[in-house]
Design a protein that fits this description.
The complex is a heterodimer of chains A (169) and B (162). With 169 residues, chain A is mostly helical. In chain A, 82% of the residues lie in helices and 0% in strands. Chain B is mainly alpha-helical. Classes of the chains: A mainly alpha (169), B mainly alpha (162).
Chain lengths: 169, 162
Amino acid sequence: MKVVESILFCFACLLVFLITGVASCAIRVKYRDLPKVRASLAYSYAGFFGEYSFLQYNQAGGKQGITALLDYLGILQRIQDEKIKYPEKALHFCSDMTYLRLYRLEVKAGNSAKANEYIRSAQNELAILGRKDVSAENLIKSIEAQEAYEEKLYNSGGDVTASVAGQKP
Amino acid sequence: MKKVIAFSICVLLGGLAGYFFAPILSMWIAQSSDPDIFAGGMLANYKSSVVCDCNDKSANEVEKELSEYLSALQRFREKDQKSRVLTQEIGLTYVRLSMVEKKFDQPSRAEEEMKHGQAELAALGWKDVSAGHLTSLVAQLNSEYKPIERKDKAVSASATAR
């Protein structure tokens, strides 16, 4: 009888061990580790893909640039849809920049309807960020200045010590 | 009383085991629920550690790391042959390798690596794939991967602002 009692007690101990283990693991995974891991991976991936799309826009342009920028927008949208804890301001800033680059490529390709569509999308992103002056003229001026700066930096052996952190997505 | 103590110890040990197992489980869940973001994120972190000149690496170490990174990229491309991101990354890695070979005074190898890089990037529609342009472009890109100062310690970091 005592042996049975001891075995039952050991089983009960094991059960308590497993239940508390599963509970503490589930709580830590759900509320801390998983959101952190997903955010960190998404941040790295978006940065990596952002550089790819920027280089395609800056070095190839045309259809190649448009495809890469649209792919990048898809990733940013996916991060938003999957509710990954990604800095919201960075997400809207990168989307805004990408729409403005798409605008430039569509203008060069002579697709004014599409270009205007992208300007409107860029305005929406900036409005979400709380910017007051989101007029099309202002945005066009800013992307033209940005493009000229990047052209100098990446296409004519510009100042290699200059940091452009924060300027390209 | 003894039983209460035994149960308490089981609760404590179970809680600790679960707590320390959680990070492994989180990685596994992230990998299986979002394989693209997981693979891309890991590749991006790998790239940052290779490209960032953070730990005063010798030219030999840089060459070895770049070659290993290139092999990893080529393995990835075998699985996804249409990936333009991988094509661009492979092209840029060839250019980085070519720049290192130049430092070793091995012009024929440097030229060979540069030709591979030019072929990959030309396939992506890059307008200017001259050796001079690609070298200055990659030098600019490399300069954006810098270590950041954190608590008086230089730690490696990618150009996170991007």
